[in-house]
Specification:
Pfam families: Abhydrolase_6. This is Alpha/beta fold hydrolase. It is built from nine helices and eight strands. The chain is an alpha/beta fold. Strand 5, helix 3 and strand 6 form a beta-alpha-beta unit. The protein is globular.
């Protein structure tokens, strides 16, 4: 995957591009994205992948003009337009799934294929989404992965999470990224999507890890019910980071969109 830059109305946007095949736009979750991401590599084997970074992520500039859900949605459409894409397959994970769903709801005639992977965006008081803003680094693996030990190794890449230098870098990066993500996820990740999902016309597949402790699988049924004709693919022995734990199965589910 090659890191590039495209200009938009408010801010230059960094994005990763690679692969060949049908155009696919991948919107990342609150944890961000890197060129080494194995999910992107798997997607790029069958698609021409474009993965824009939300401003404030990676080495991208922050953007004060992107303040609420509508801003995030319109900015994402600005990126698609700037890339010269017409009706790409739209895929979003977690926060990115929330944005992708909003994009498909606000411009239903511009999205024909939509994949939502453990998306945020709905809320039920009896099934609260985990408060990611209050979690310490050592707590994240149990919320993100079915296999917490393996997940911890992936997240830390073998580094000691108790090392002050690691913690400092982690916390600074996290604060910068979550400062942006918090505009649509804090205090709860709900901005009225449930009232707009009926507008989605795209052929939709909803993918969820059965062991997701960040956004409970309860919400999978809300998305399936809210989007006409949506197909639900539940993946066992996978958590919120199903894209890393069961990469091939997620790619196969996306492939059902044609």
């Amino acid at each position: 995957m090659e890191l590039k830059t495209v200009s938009t109305q408010h801010v230059p946007v960094r994005y990763l591009e690679g692969g060949s095949g049908p155009d696919l736009v991948f919107l990342h979750g609150a944890g961000g994205l890197t060129a080494e991401d194995p999910f992107l590599k798997a997607l790029s084997e069958k698609h021409h992948v474009y993965a824009p970074l939300i401003p404030g992520y990676g080495d991208s500039e922050e953007c004060g003009e992107i303040r609420d859900m509508l801003d995030f949605t319109q900015h994402s459409w600005d990126v698609v337009e700037a890339l010269g894409l017409k009706d790409p397959i739209l895929v979003g994970h977690s926060m990115g799934g929330m944005i992708a769903a909003e994009m498909a709801a606000t411009q239903p005639n511009d999205v024909s294929r939509l994949a939502l992977i453990c998306p945020a965006g709905l809320w039920n008081d009896d099934h609260p989404v985990a408060d990611m803003f209050s979690l310490m680094p050592y707590e994240m693996p149990q919320y993100l992965f079915h296999d917490a030990a393996a997940g911890a190794a992936i997240l830390t890449a073998g580094r000691n999470v108790e090392d002050p230098n690691f913690l400092q870098t982690y916390l600074v990066t996290n604060a910068r990224q979550l400062g942006m993500a918090g505009r649509i996820l804090f205090p709860i990740p709900e901005r009225g999507l449930s009232q707009r999902m009926y507008r989605i016309k795209a052929k939709t597949v909803v993918v969820w890890g059965d062991s997701d402790r960040m956004i409970p699988p309860f919400y999978a049924h809300g998305f399936k019910k809210g989007i006409a004709g949506a197909e639900l693919v539940s993946i066992p022995e996978a958590g919120h980071m199903v894209i890393l734990e069961k990469t091939a199965q997620v790619v196969e589910a996306i492939g059902r969109l044609g």
